[in-house]
């Protein structure tokens, strides 16, 4: 709690950062040169010109922000924190295999080969990658096998995460009304949300994450929506990265995926649909009307050959008012790199250099992300009363010179440079490019050992298109 200093004028706060350039993302999108941020009890107490803030506040933890640019902590709307991080160098699929073969013969066996200790290490690895890139909040993709181990790994890092165990309510070996499988899926969603309850202070909480595509029947979707509505949670699901999803829904429901989900009443502001490459104009209208969020993962779309530059309707979604967030998916990239791609893909696709400027891309990983996770009153901007989630970037580097438009430049800085310092709810979890919580050298050693064991258990062959001698 703030206390008055002995001089009776300045208030004591936990942390005072001064001298920085601050991209506030407030209502008028102010950028404050020589600015300051006062942090107390995990919240932003004040932000403004350093000359004003330092007259009103003092702190034992004073951070020299000169030569730094500060942004709100970023939101990664969709990331597989297990399965991919420890096996990123293993090429999925053999020549000629289609998307379904890659999933069933490569991706799923690798996920299933993770033991609890592997998933904990993987979660820590993912958390470090995200924090180092300025991400303070993420939503997992719904492919966790060992939730307790993952929760432990995430909590140890300090990042804020919304996670959920792997839930499949459709038994493809039986008929679509296999009640035992449905009941088990619903029970899992309910028990997870009870064990890892979402509160205002919980950094790790469980949401009803449904994987998506075709793996959960209507009964599970309806139960997940009730659970989300009653407890202030959100739903996330993959949908329509390829034509196979619309084809399946048309064959089995007579409607396209988004149309069917709207018909059964499970869309809305607390629902996030990931990929949405193969949606038509009517589905865009539904997404806008229901205020359903869409998460686009540019790298996954390009790597997976989704065809978004030729058929993707993301500019039309934005024009219709759909809240577009960004995610990194299972690709080894940082969220700023996803934002960089977003500024270019659809300029080329529409032959229009004005589509998705840098300002909109930055909004997608701050304000839009906060809105998607239903924390728009707490995250996404540097304003008094908001959670003190901050990413601090060192501009005293060659790639930042000369400094003019900081929004444009933060999206052009080379990938891998990362954030110098990161705060989550006022706690400095990255300091001078190093974690304050995790022994990163030990983590790297654990990753090497764990990754080799996973590939051996999965029984997949590590192959290269070129000879390795």
UniProtKB/TrEMBL annotation:
<dbReference type="InterPro" id="IPR006680">
    <property type="entry name" value="Amidohydro-rel"/>
</dbReference>
<dbReference type="InterPro" id="IPR032466">
    <property type="entry name" value="Metal_Hydrolase"/>
</dbReference>
<dbReference type="Pfam" id="PF01979">
    <property type="entry name" value="Amidohydro_1"/>
</dbReference>
<dbReference type="InterPro" id="IPR011059">
    <property type="entry name" value="Metal-dep_hydrolase_composite"/>
</dbReference>
<feature type="domain" description="Amidohydrolase-related">
    <location>
        <begin position="69"/>
        <end position="407"/>
    </location>
</feature>
<keyword id="KW-0378">Hydrolase</keyword>
<protein>
    <submittedName>
        <fullName>Amidohydrolase family protein</fullName>
    </submittedName>
</protein>
<dbReference type="InterPro" id="IPR050287">
    <property type="entry name" value="MTA/SAH_deaminase"/>
</dbReference>
<comment type="similarity">
    <text>Belongs to the metallo-dependent hydrolases superfamily. ATZ/TRZ family.</text>
</comment>
């Amino acid at each position: 709690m703030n206390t008055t200093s002995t001089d009776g004028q300045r208030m004591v706060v936990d942390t005072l950062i001064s001298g920085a350039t601050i991209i506030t993302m407030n209502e008028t999108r102010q950028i404050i040169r020589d600015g300051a941020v006062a942090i107390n009890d995990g919240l932003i107490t004040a932000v403004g010109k350093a000359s004003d803030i330092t007259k009103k506040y003092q702190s034992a933890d004073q951070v020299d922000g000169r030569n730094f640019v500060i942004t709100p902590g970023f939101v990664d709307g969709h990331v597989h924190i297990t399965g991919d991080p420890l096996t990123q160098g293993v090429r999925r699929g053999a020549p000629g295999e289609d998307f379904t073969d890659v999933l069933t013969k490569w991706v799923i066996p690798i996920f299933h080969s993770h033991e609890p200790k592997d998933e904990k290490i993987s979660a820590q690895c993912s958390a470090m990658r995200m924090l180092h890139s300025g991400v303070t909040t993420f939503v997992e993709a719904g492919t966790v096998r060992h939730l307790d181990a993952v929760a432990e790994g995430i909590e140890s890092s300090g990042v804020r995460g919304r996670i959920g165990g792997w839930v499949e309510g459709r038994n493809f070996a039986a008929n679509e009304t296999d009640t035992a499988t449905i009941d088990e899926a619903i029970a899992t969603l309910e028990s997870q949300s009870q064990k890892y309850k979402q509160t205002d202070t919980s950094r790790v909480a469980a949401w009803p994450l449904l994987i998506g595509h075709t793996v959960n029947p209507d009964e599970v979707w309806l139960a997940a929506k009730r659970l989300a509505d009653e407890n202030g949670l959100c739903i996330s699901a993959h949908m329509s990265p390829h034509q196979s999803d619309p084809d399946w829904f048309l064959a089995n429901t007579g409607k396209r995926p988004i149309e069917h989900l709207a018909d059964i009443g499970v869309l809305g502001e607390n629902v996030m649909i990931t990929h949405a490459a193969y949606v038509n104009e009517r589905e865009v209208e539904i997404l806008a009307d229901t205020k359903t969020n869409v998460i686009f993962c540019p790298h996954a779309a390009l790597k997976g050959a989704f065809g978004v530059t030729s058929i993707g309707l993301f500019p039309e979604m934005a024009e219709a008012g759909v809240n577009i967030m960004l995610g990194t998916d299972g690709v080894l990239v940082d969220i700023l790199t996803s934002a960089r791609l977003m500024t270019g893909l659809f300029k080329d696709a529409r032959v229009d250099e004005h589509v998705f400027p840098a300002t909109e891309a930055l909004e997608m990983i701050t304000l839009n992300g906060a809105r998607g996770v239903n924390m728009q009153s707490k995250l996404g901007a540097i304003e008094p009363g908001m959670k003190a989630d901050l990413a601090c970037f060192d501009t005293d580097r060659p790639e930042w010179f000369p400094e003019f438009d900081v929004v444009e430049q933060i999206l052009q800085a080379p990938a891998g440079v990362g954030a110098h310092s990161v705060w989550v709810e006022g706690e400095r979890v990255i300091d001078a490019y190093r974690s304050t919580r995790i022994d990163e050298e030990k983590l790297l050693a654990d990753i090497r050992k764990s990754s080799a064991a996973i590939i051996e258990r999965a029984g997949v062959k590590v192959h290269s298109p070129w000879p390795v001698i």
